[in-house]
Amino acid sequence: MTLTIVGSQLGDEGKGALVDRWGGDADVVVRYQGGDNAGHTVVEGGAEYKLSLVPSGAVRGTVGILGNGCVVNPRTLFTEIDDLRERGLDPDVRVARRAHVIMPYHRVLDGIEEEIKADDDAGDEVGTTGRGIGPTYEDKAGRRGIRVADLLDPDALREKLEYAVPQKRALVEDVYGLDLDDDRAEAFDVDALHEEFAAIGERLADEGMTVNCSDYLHRRHEAGDAIVFEGAQGTHIDVDHGNYPFVTSSNPTAGAAAVGSGVGVTTVGDGDVVGIVKAYLSRVGEGPLPTELDGDADEEALADEIRERGGEFGTVTGRPRRIGWLDLPMLRHSARVSGFTGVAVNHVDVLAGLDELKVCTGYELDGETLDTVPTTTDRWERCEPIYETLDTWEEFDSSAVAEAGYDALPEAAREYLEFLADEIDTPVYAVGVGPDREETVELTNPFDE
Ligand code: IMP
Questions:
Q1: Ligand 1 binding pocket, CB closer than 6 Å
Q2: CA 48–ligand 1 middle distance (angstroms)
Q3: Paired residues of 275 in beta bridges
Q4: Strand runs (DSSP E) across 224-370, as ranges?
Q5: Amino acid 126: pLDDT
Q6: How remote is the CA of residue 132 from the centroid of ligand 1, in Å?
Q7: Contact 172, 112 (CB under 8 A)
Q8: Which residues pair with 421 in a beta bridge?
Q9: 284, 278, 274, 276: which is closest to 237 by C-alpha?
């Protein structure tokens, strides 16, 4: 039995709460892409855990795997594990030996490339999280990456560093024309890198943390264990299916669950694939957002209200998120790309008590009506949303509604959810009405079917 959780918008849909909820019924939770650019907030009994690398399920004691499709910053990994241990948890995290390692120079390069793009006024900076994600995936594809397995073998590690680091240094000094005589120099020092990362390899080995991910998951699956694939980020920042170039460098969509963990597509496809939807939109970073609430002072005030109520500030970077109305063309694209069997709609409580409520059902572009997202940024940017105005609902007691079930939701909220489900032809499995895991109305538990 498997369950794949996918972000259906631009990341930050509240995947962590659902992974945590359903992951508790699973034996293994696997991340299959991305790295510490992700930000999962899990609230358990009033305690808040902000995780960027450790799979959310770890808060509930489920084995968490970082699959081969992930890029792993071991400094972040150990900081998070140590913090969780200090707070009395004992996370069991394993890392695929085929996963790539984010090295300090990748982070430096991420920053430099963004600065250069920002300086040339072409407006093509991506607004990355600065975690070195893109440069690490570039090196993976360029066959000069360092994998977790290399950290376990000091000689192999040195050989790889001696090949890669001078190229990186030349890129900074000769192509970008920057001096590396400041505090960034250490990130390009082979000896210092070797010392630190060989020691990290020793710790990974001592704690028995590395796995052959494909083999490990195959055995667990054969033994009848339930596996959750935890997607990070969202469909519209997928490097293939998202709003290129304002994307992350991996594939958050469901197909990557197979590639990024070494499990067959038939195994992933045999289980549920649940798209996580935020009841409105948020975006951190650059790129179009046709339904963005930024047209006039009233819209900006509404965006501020939703931002405050929904806590819409980046988990990783603290940046305020841009806010927009729910966009159904985006959801149609997501449902098709990943083959959603169900959706979970979060933050329904945040929309309570508004004066008006709009949903974008399609776009107008050059005299045409579109029901899905165009393939280029230029065309998407020029799309005019077609709105349907729906009834609003009053504030409600989230815990009481979560306990009483779906019918206890205000009628207008149920109509909103049913409208959404109908438009994308996908049933609602769960409704988030508050940040705590308990504040979820569950209609279908994928593991009970
Ligand atoms: P990167 O993944 O750091 O390279 O950033 C590329 C783009 O993806 C930027 O627009 C980021 O803001 C966005 N992004 C990356 N991770 C997340 C996430 O977990 N949530 C929302 N946006 C993200």
A1: 10-12, 37-39, 126-129, 131, 133-134, 232-233, 237, 246, 248-249, 284-285
A2: 22
A3: 6, 343
A4: 227-230, 272-278, 281-283, 322-324, 326-327, 342-346, 357-365, 368-370
A5: 85
A6: 11
A7: yes
A8: none
A9: 284
* Residue 236: strand, helix, or coil: helix
Question: Does 129 show up as a binding residue in the annotation?
Answer: yes
263 carries a ligand binding annotation: no
H or E stretch covering 53: none
Rounded to the nearest whole angstrom, what is the distance from the C-alpha of residue 230 to the centroid of ligand 1? Answer: 16
- Tell me which of 184-188, 281-285, 331-335, 362-366 is least confident: 281-285
Residue 449: predicted pLDDT? 66
Contact between residue 335 and residue 6 where contact means Cβ atoms under 8 Å apart: no
30's CB contacts (< 8 A; 6+ apart) are: 55, 64, 65, 66, 67, 213, 217, 227, 228, 229, 230, 257, 261
**Active-site annotation holds for 100:** no
- Residue 274 assigned as binding residue: no
Q: Which residues pair with 215 in a beta bridge?
A: none
12, 20, 238, 327: which is the annotated catalytic residue? 12
**Coil vs helix vs strand at 227:** strand
Q: Which one-letter DSSP state was computed for residue 69?
A: T
Per-residue pLDDT of 353-380, as tens digits, reads 999 999 999 999 999 999 999 999 999 9
Q: Which of 20, 36, 40, 150 is catalytic?
A: 40
Consult the annotation and say whether 100 binds a ligand: no
Domains of the chain: 2-98+209-272 (3.40.440.10), 101-204 (1.10.300.10), 277-448 (3.90.170.10)
Q: Are the C-beta atoms of 9 and 334 separated by less than 8 Å? A: yes
Work out the average pLDDT over 75-97: 95
Report the alpha-carbon distance of residue 145 to residue 101 in Å, rounded: 7
- Pocket probe mutation, ligand 1, options 237, 278, 282, max atoms within 8 Å of Cβ: 237
Q: What gap in Å lies between CA 330 and CA 290, rounded to an integer?
A: 10
What are the structure tokens assigned to 248, written together? 């992350």
Say which of 117, 140, 278, 333 is annotated catalytic: 140
Q: Please tell me the distance between residue 283's alpha carbon and the centre of ligand 1 in angstroms.
A: 9
Residues 6+ apart with CB under 8 A from 373: 236, 243, 329, 330, 333, 380
Q: Is 140 a catalytic residue?
A: yes
